[in-house]
Amino acid sequence: MDTSEEVHYNERDLAAKSFKAFLLKSSSKTNLNLYDHLAQLLTKVMDESPEDVVETFEDMSQEVKRAGLQNTQSTLRDTTPISTATVLAEQQRALFSRKAGEDPAHEEYLVKTPLPNVPELAFYLEQAGVGLGEEEMHRVFLALKELVDTQPLQRCRFWGKILGSESNYFVAEGEFQEGGGEEDETAEEEARKSEHRVDDLEAVAEHTVNLLQKSADKSMPVVPMEDKGTGANKYTYFVCREPGMPWVRLPSVTPAQIIAARQICKFFTGRLDAPIASSPPFPGNEANYLRAQIARISASTQVSPLGFYQFAEEEGEEDEETPRYSLEENPDFEGIPVSEMAESLSTWVHHVPHILEQGRCVWVDLAEKPEELVEEEEGDEDREDEPDKPEAEVGPPLLTPVSEDAEINKTPSWTAKMSSTLVSQFAIAVLRSNLWPGAYSFAFKKKFENIYVGWGLKFTGEGYNPPAPPPTQQAYPSGPEIMEDLEVGLKEKQGVKSTLEERRAVEEEESEEAEGEEEEEEED
Amino acid sequence: MDSDSLRYSLDLVSGCGLTLSCEQRAALQTSLLILKRNYKFSRVLFWGKILGLRSDYFIAHGITEDEMRNRKTLYSFNCVDWHLLPPVTEAQLAEVSLLKEHFKGDPSYEYEHTETRGLDEGDEAVVEEITVSVKMTEETRLAATVFNIDREVSVVPRGAFIKTPSGRVQVNRCFEGLSESEARKLSSYLHFSEPQHLKKKTILETADLNPSIDFLDNLSEDTPKGSWSLQFERGSISVLRSLLWLGLTFFHVPMTPQHGYIYMGDGMKNHYLPFML
């Protein structure tokens, strides 16, 4: 009996020992084995005695494993990779440093600066439910201060933020002082000229192609760009990727770009030099497309309370037909009560001129040909009759109330409401555009502001249909004047052939005669 | 987005432009707690805001045991009084994509939309017309839109949720966040809804996946490619924005378990995405 029990006991002992050996077997991936791991885990449970150990057992097991792994010291030192966060932080640190020569007690700070009061703007916008975050707005504020210090701007405003697929644009709107912005332009021109010198051959090739195209394409005169300081180019826009990075100035917008931008619908990528591949083709790269969209958004959604601006009184004759464009602030503006502004849309008016179909704010008559062109064309044989003078395009005049904007899909293109219904004494009126999602305006007593935060796309209602590509160009119509007349050609060829044969026959006869004479001479 | 960390999360997401005003945030903090107790939810998430013409809808999700199934959706106008949204059928989900108007702001508004589509049948010159008419209330449209958005563009980082062997989905308490390099790849993010592509994968592809973490569809398999915009705002926060439903923003702070998504927009799908890329 003892031996059988002993044998039985020995077997169980053997099984236990072999199982323990199995537990002690190191894993092939790491140098852990289950026996040590369980021992550590149960020790931890004993030490900590957490509640409901059974539920959190797996988590504890993972923690023990992670704690057990140690970095073996290697002879190579790890270089910490520089993350983009630290790079950006370095750039943004410059925002917070005060430049030499600035004294906070200096009197200049008491004078009106072109710098807008962005923290106040952020406060009101937050009540409206719009915002970029407190710290971000403050960084934008400091970046605008840097812009104002470097550029001679008369007025500056934070226009908004346009989101892109790879990175975003923070946009600032500035109005230059008289004669201020030209320095940058000459720098730009010089840069362009130096580029031209490098690509001379390409430029010459392009130029000839353009000339050829121009001569063939007489029916498409280019609409001239509006001058700086007027119309769609009244303000200059600066963009940057993140506040702290340098501000880049956007080029002025041409009417062709506005017309093309109306027909395409594209996301921004975030790189200013990215090409825009679209149909119809857009004349320019992303910087031009961005500028065109900014112009369209400004023209459609920049509004102010009725009475804030009034028409400046012009000296001289007042022609009723020519629209008036100069605005000035109304010193007697009292402010409209917030509840009225939230109720009716007619208390808000546009103060940026509408962009016409032509792509400009002031219509230009293209049928009037300047003198030079007229002289050149007199030599042409085919001269078509002058087309009828096209009608002048007229848009809604400045300071039209917003309630007269066209509706989309039977919904008004603006929504107005108060920011809070619980405490109406201190609430502000908020206007939101349904046509350009992302455009917001607020008004409170005598203060108002506009901002745009969005993707830069218009709401198209039924949907965006890309315009069909233009029809293929017609080949020159085939007619008798260009077709080869087969019969005549054949006859001509036959005629030529016969004359050639005759000539050859004559030559042969002559040569035979000559030979014959020679033979005769030899004989003699 | 968790109701506990609302202010912090909103700050991270606010790059899209829309946030909540202080009054709304304060109201949410109180009303969501009351909601949690009344409905016996284990977690309440603030889902987002859908803009309407007359008033905006604030949407919240209530979660019971399983994180993914049996979620209840509630809406409110003033962040204080919440109403339950009805569950939606598949037919309603399909119909809702035909409606292209803004939300009106009135839940009892009836939409009536009829569309005639011409169908050519092969060689026949006869064109048959199919009229599809859609009639639904705004409340149903709201529920269907929220469901669609969740199904198509909800995002969570890989590893944030695990699936237990019993099939329950729960929060992974050991999730310590994606690393900086992982956070830059679109494949580290998963859709938080029933997987559609997972079943079609070959065994070779599924061999590398961890069944407790990779039980959801990966974002990098979305069509069309480029429908997500992955950016690093302020240098270190990974922000994903959907270009298919404009207004959905997802944030994640790498090396921390903080993540969340929110939808703030007009509730309309961007059907013309391929033209815009």
Mean pLDDT of chain A: 75
Q: What characterizes the major β-sheet of chain B?
A: 8 strands, mixed
Q: Count the E strands of chain A.
A: 12
Going across the major beta sheet of chain B, what is the strand order? 4-3-2-1-14-13-12-11
Nearest-angstrom radius of gyration of chain B?
20 Å
The end-to-end span of chain A amounts to 156 Å
What string gives the helices and strands of chain B in order?
A: HHEEEEHEEHEEEHEHEEEEH
Estimate the helix proportion of chain A, in percent. 25-40%
The spatial strand order of the largest sheet of chain A comes to 4-3-2-1-12-11-10-9
Query: Which range does the strand content of chain B fall in?
Result: 25-35%
Question: Please, how many domains of chain B?
Answer: 1
Overall description:
The complex is a heterodimer of chains A (524) and B (277). Chain A has 524 residues and is α+β, with helices and mostly antiparallel strands. Chain A is built from 13 helices and 12 strands. In chain A, the strands form 3 sheets. Chain A has an 8-stranded mixed sheet, with helices on both faces. Chain A has helices spanning 2-24, 34-48, 53-68, 84-96, 118-128, 134-150, 182-198, 200-216, 255-263, 286-301, 338-343, 371-377, 486-523, and strands at residues 153-162, 169-176, 236-240, 248-249, 303-305, 309-311, 327-329, 348-350, 414-418, 429-433, 439-444, 447-454. Chain A is flat and about 145 Å long. In chain A, a hairpin with a 6-residue loop joins strand 1 (153-162) and strand 2 (169-176). With 277 residues, chain B is of the alpha+beta class. Chain B has one domain (3-87, 135-276). Chain B contains 7 helices and 14 strands. Chain B has helices at 6-13, 22-39, 90-95, 138-153, 180-183, 203-206, 273-276, and strands spanning 43-50, 57-63, 72-76, 83-84, 110-120, 127-137, 155-157, 161-163, 169-171, 189-191, 228-233, 237-242, 248-252, 259-265. Chain B has an 8-stranded mixed sheet with strand order 4-3-2-1-14-13-12-11, with helices on both faces. In chain B, strand 13 (248-252) and strand 14 form a beta hairpin. The longest helix of chain B has 18 residues, at 22-39. The radius of gyration of chain B is 20 Å and the shape is globular. The two termini of chain B are 29 Å apart. Classes of the chains: A alpha+beta (524), B alpha+beta (277). At the A-B interface, helix 3, helix 4, helix 5 and helix 6 of A face helix 2 and strand 11 of B.
